[in-house]
């Protein structure tokens, strides 16, 4: 399998596309305006100690001084005898002292960033704990055999100076992948210590990796043929990064100077747009309908124009088999997680059902994200789950529709017309008016004056008053006003 990364960098946004065998499989997007500083490590200076608040203000070269509470000074935690209270802040830090801290909460409004001295550095599967000596496993990994397996792999990486925690994403990870992560984190921490010795204060000792760096880190161990970057500056920064931390990826890195936008390669831009549609066409003529809700994602398969060449059962089976490949790709591309319900076209042949499930499982096995696949339910639905790792593509690129408020549908012009007629009757009973003016969208006004003109005339006779209709181009189809004159 050939794989390639396309990295599109602009001052405001970075996008990364993973292409496998010429087909877009994953899209990662980061917008600079939404990027925080949580995870950054600084060598800060204590500028004020507040005994009454048991806290200190720390200068980390941001607009506002950062806040460090005594309870967050983990490496020097001192408890009073027979008490749960933290020791006096003045016994832990003093003004003018330089201290290594990590941001745990971004600045908000008038408040500065929240800090801790309990430093950790995370990678895809592991978390490095510089002042620990043991291997820990995320509590969310519940299978005891898997916990034992991970502990045996990670345990030897720990020593007297550092320990590791296996993150939830590490469940099922192989020994080589975990080894790559541990080696990467060790290199990062050595770099942090060197910068601390130089008393680097104007810049962070460690900055949580931006998207392009993070993607390279996470794809270590995967056979990447080429990594194309369309920004010369970003390319140079990535080259330094790979040379220092991931030297095996350096030969794959190249600058893309082409006039053609990099995301036009392999039709990546078009594929992203298609991934925002509900309907996905199959090559056979069938199609999928993908609906994403807060509770779950549902996928419905239909034969559409595909009539096949044999009997109906074979046509259905062929469509379902084709759909399994598209489903697996769309889940990765859209980054859909949580509960996923797949409504395949009904099959009566048990062998066909088994082969469809096997096909879906094989297609999903290419996904780095953990998933679980269950068989057909009594209702003929396939239930599966896929781990949530980041926001879905739709949530990143789209917002709630201001017209339908996220329903996905608008009331028809006919429905709005009947609402208007009922509203006129209601207002007439409650208030004394000489006539009424109805303001509504052009489509509703046209429908009211043409298709529903007889009903409008009947209401005029019923209330004994004139009703005028005026189109308001700025109104949406569901919006209207009934004005008394």
From TrEMBL:
Localization, UniProt: Cytoplasm
Alphabetical UniProt keywords: Cytoplasm, Endonuclease, Hydrolase, Magnesium, Metal-binding, Nuclease, RNA-binding, rRNA processing, rRNA-binding, tRNA processing, tRNA-binding
Domain of life: Bacteria
Classification via CDD domains: S1_RNase_E
Main location group: cytoplasm
Molecular function as annotated in GO: hydrolase activity
Record flagged with keyword Flavoprotein: no
InterPro entries: NA-bd_OB-fold, RNA-bd_AU-1/RNase_E/G, RNase_E/G, RNase_E_G_thioredoxin-like, S1_domain
PANTHER family to which the protein is assigned, alphabetical: RIBONUCLEASE (PTHR30001), RIBONUCLEASE G (PTHR30001:SF0)
Cofactor(s) this protein requires: Mg(2+)
Organism: Colwellia echini
Family in the record: Belongs to the RNase E/G family. RNase G subfamily.
Every S1 motif domain range: 39-118
Keyword Hydrolase: yes
Full protein name: Ribonuclease G
